[in-house]
Amino acid sequence: MPTLLWFRRDLRCHDHPALLEAAREGGEVLACYVLDPRLEASAGARRLQYLYRALRNLSDNLDGELLVTRGRPEQRIPALARAISATSVHASQDHSPFGRRRDEAVGAALGEIALCATGSGYLVSPGRIIKSDGAPYRVFTPFFRAWRRHGWRAPADSGPASARWIVPADISGDISERVEIPSVTGQLIFEAGEDAARSQWREFVAANLADYRARRDRPGLDATSRMSAHLKFGTIHPRTMAVDLHSGDDAYLRELAFRDFYAAVLHHWPDSAWRNWNRDFDAIEVDDDETAKQAFEAWKDGRTGFPIVDAGMRQLASTGFMHNRVRMIVASFLVKDLHLPWQWGARWFLDQLIDGDLANNQHGWQWAAGCGTDAAPYFRVFNPDLQGAKFDPHGDYIRRWIPELADVADVHKLGTGRPSSYPEPLVDHAEERQEALRRYRRLG
């Protein structure tokens, strides 16, 4: 009997457990993707560019036998299942708050047709790693130890030839909402899709993995994997990556563990997507008046007068990507120098980032703001000038993104040598650090 394979954040054929489950029932499989208008409206332009390119690559790998439709999944998935008389619908498990609500609605609309969720986009699915008393972990380090003890399965042996695919053109039922994959004209800083993800990972392992621990915090170096967008869209599974990581690669493995940890935190505390995980911080004083909004615009535009902050924000605006160390610096500046709500920065990141992932983004911001799990202590306020000098010692990253400083000898100590074309500092860091500490201590 035919089955339906519903692709979501798993736009690949290799290491795809749900694909194998859909094919295991012995009949033909219809591969489909639903362009949900709600997600298209909320995703930034660059994420949509990646999505459409990844869909095109998936369609090519399936010899064009991917049916793309637009609409609400609780309407389109049952319609497609009925059109092919499917006995079941298969998908990868989605643990996000939105995904769980959507899948409940789709399951109810399918009626007697089973919605089968298999696997997830994580090494260990959210909810699996818990304490002996059944409580979720609130701190990363013990989670990491338990996560490693738990382990994960080997990659699933799947590929484009794992199923007998139904040709969409042969379907006689209602597929009236079928659409072409939207065309894309804009450029991304890296290729999208499964083929690109697998190739990019192989290149990183060969060229940069051995030096990752030593070089990963230097934004001026091409030392990171830039796999985050591929993981966000599931064009590669982290298990495919983990097989290349050995005992000496703990620095990279910890990054994959943090991804699992933040997904687990969001799974257990779905309200933490936009509210403080530590509710004590609901009482913290933040600025949101007209002056604050002007400061926010200067931060977004890279016009704060602090070179490492402005370089990061300009990189983000230009490419849809920002080095992780710089993400922490610009986040600390927004919440502790400008005293703005972390949600403002988190929302801007989600609008701009190709790899914008709700769990990673929101809980990374809450780490910087001090209100999340494993949060930076309230008294840790990054000095942007010292951070720039430490992690971009020669100023290569800053000069790349701030051409006004291209001819400045020491970009970390501008002083009287600040070019007239580059803004004066928006705030006095020393004063704002003390103000941040005052506000945090009042939470007492």
Automatic annotation (TrEMBL):
Keyword Glycosyltransferase annotated: no
Example GO molecular function: DNA binding
Entry note: cofactor: Binds 1 FAD per subunit.
Single Gene Ontology BP annotation: response to stress
SUPFAM superfamilies recorded: Cryptochrome/photolyase FAD-binding domain, Cryptochrome/photolyase, N-terminal domain
Required co-factors: FAD
Keywords: Chromophore, FAD, Flavoprotein, Lyase
Domain of life: Bacteria
Positions that bind FAD: 212, 224-228, 252, 255-262, 355-357
Domain Photolyase/cryptochrome alpha/beta: 1-123
InterPro entries: Crypto/Photolyase_FAD-like_sf, Crypto/Photolyase_N_sf, Cryptochr/Photolyase_FAD-bd, Cryptochrome/DNA_photolyase_1, DNA_photolyase_1_CS_C, DNA_photolyase_N, Rossmann-like_a/b/a_fold
Family label: Belongs to the DNA photolyase family.
Stated name of the protein: Deoxyribodipyrimidine photolyase
